[in-house]
Amino acid sequence: MRKLLAFSSLPTLMTIIHLTPKELPRYANELRHFLRDVFDNPTMDIVCNDELLAYVVVLESEQIVACSSVHVREMTQGETRFLGGVIGSVAVHPNWRGKGLCRSLIHALETQMMASSVDVSFLFAYVPDIYRACGYQALEMPIHHVDDTTHTWTSFVYRGGMFKHLSQRILLQDNEIDFGGCVY
Q1: pLDDT digit string (tens) for 142-183?
Q2: Domains (ranges, CATH) in the chain?
Q3: pTM to 2 decimals?
Q4: Of 5, 145, 152, 170, whose CB has the highest number of CB atoms within 10 Å?
C-alpha cells in the first residue's frame, strides 16, 4: 500500500510504503543495500520472519531515503502477558537526517502496531533524544532475550533501550521483561 505524505520542511513529495512480509521480497535487494550503506556493515541483512509485522520505507524520486521495521511477539513481565513490538533497523540516509523522517517512520510503525493491538513498543537507540521526542522513555528494567551473536539466552539492562506504552497495559519499572526472543 502506498501513502503520499508531504513533508512541510521538504520541497518534494515523498512516498511512504508500508510493506507486509508478502510484499517485502519486491524491495529486499534495495533495502539490503541501503541498510548496509547507512550502517556501514557489509553483512547487515533484512529480517523477514514470522514475527515481522511490517517494513516502512520512505522513497524520494523512487530512491530509498529511510526505512525501519517492526517485529511483534508475546512477551511477559512476571505473570503479565502482553504483545510487544520491537522496532529495528531504523535507517535514514545521511543526506536526509534532521528532516523529520525518523519521526515519520516511528509514527507509521506505531500506527500499524496499534492496529494490531500491540501494547508496548520497544527500540534500541544510538541517538535516544530522537525517540524521546516521539514519547519513548528509557528502558531501565532488565530484559531476558536471545543474544543474536551467541544464540544464548541472557539478561541485562540495555543502555539505549527505550519503550512506549501503546495501550492501557503498564510495565513495572523494576521487573525483568521476558522478550521471548531476540532484539532487532
Answers
A1: 999 999 889 999 998 988 999 999 999 888 888 999 999 999
A2: 2-182 (3.40.630.30)
A3: 0.89
A4: 145
Length of the chain: 184
Element of type H or E holding 73: strand 63-77
Q: Please write the tens of the pLDDT for every residue from 39-56.
A: 999 999 999 999 999 999
Lookup: cell for 84: 510487544
Q: Give the three cell numbers for residue 165.
A: 506504552
Q: Is 101 exposed, middle or buried (0-12, 13-18, 19+ CB in 10 A)?
A: buried
Question: In the chain, where does DSSP find H-type helix?
Answer: 28-39, 101-115, 128-132
Residue 62 to residue 1: CA distance in whole angstroms: 15
